[in-house]
From TrEMBL:
CDD domains: SEC14. PROSITE patterns: CRAL_TRIO. Keywords: Endoplasmic reticulum, Microsome. This is SEC14 homolog 3. GO terms for molecular function: phosphatidylinositol transfer activity; sterol binding. It is found in: Microsome. Transmembrane segments: none annotated. The keyword Endoplasmic reticulum applies. GO terms for biological process: phospholipid biosynthetic process; response to xenobiotic stimulus; sterol biosynthetic process. InterPro entries: CRAL-TRIO_dom, CRAL-TRIO_dom_sf, CRAL/TRIO_N_dom, CRAL/TRIO_N_dom_sf, PI_Transfer_CRAL-TRIO. The keyword Endoplasmic reticulum applies. It catalyses: a 1,2-diacyl-sn-glycero-3-phospho-(1D-myo-inositol)(in) = a 1,2-diacyl-sn-glycero-3-phospho-(1D-myo-inositol)(out). The lineage of its organism: Eukaryota, Fungi, Dikarya, Ascomycota, Saccharomycotina. One of its GO terms (cellular component) is cell periphery.
Amino acid sequence: MFKRKQKNVETDSTKWIKIEVPIENPQSDLTPPTPRLLEGEELVKYKAVLKHFSNPDLLIPTKEKKNASDNEMKPLTDFEKAWLSRECIMRYLRATKWDTQDCIDRISLSIAWRREFGISNFGEENGDTLTSDLVSPEAVTGKEVILGFDNDCRPILYLKPGRQNTPTSHRQVQHLVFMLERVIDFMQPSQDSLALLIDFKEYPDVPKVQGNSKIPPLGVGKQVLHILQTHYPERLGKALLTNIPWLAWTFLKLIHPFIDPLTREKLVFDEPFSKYVPQNQLETLYGGNLDFKYNHEAYWPVLKEITARKRRNYLERFEKFGKKIGLSEYDLRGDHDELKFPVD
């Protein structure tokens, strides 16, 4: 798993495309996967979970803990019903190996966590307390960037620890969660997973900060893994890692036992990014044609505008199609008039 592989990155500068902002939609020759249909026992289990969360008297904890008291329980909001899509339920069912009760418990726990973390309202414009202004100081050096789509039409989130600009803190975790929520906004109908491109390259232009660690402490790493594996199940489609220093290899070996087996299968070490990403969707630094230099003043407002517009479209279609739990993300992210996957 941790064997280094030879990299071969070549670029043709005559084909470079200068860009400072996110790419809103994938190029036309990238096609999302076909939506999955359920039948037999899987359909029976799906309907059981759907029925549980469709109960109008259902109450969910407001904090991520078991045995919550009555005053810590609240009914589902419309925003949470919109989050509880057909594909959301299917992701949790797959993650729990189709154990109905485990799936229900996991979804309930994630709803509680989203409430506690401040991301249960579908964006800051709807009342989320995790806002772009809160995490903007973490974003100024471009250490986490959403840019382009991979061969399977997954939106790409670049993580660049070498551009770390702040001491280790909870706000760094908030920044990662904020960017995960935003990369989900970029997902196309029927594609519900993302690609991570993680580059440990050092950047001398980023000032050194006391307490600034390019490699997160083990405790922070475990916390992030808990969030990803527990509250974003089946979201990772591919994770490509490159320029890994010895300290990062040590960290990866320490964190390896905490990574679930399905996630391990999606990790790719020191292979050319261009093998997995079209050149016109990939930074020149990795053999692509996107001449991208992070400019916070140019990038950040456009990221906020694009994702807010996509969330607005999602919620408008959620209302149009009846504000029901179990509506399909294919229908909610699309622009067609008729439901492809009616709840009933």
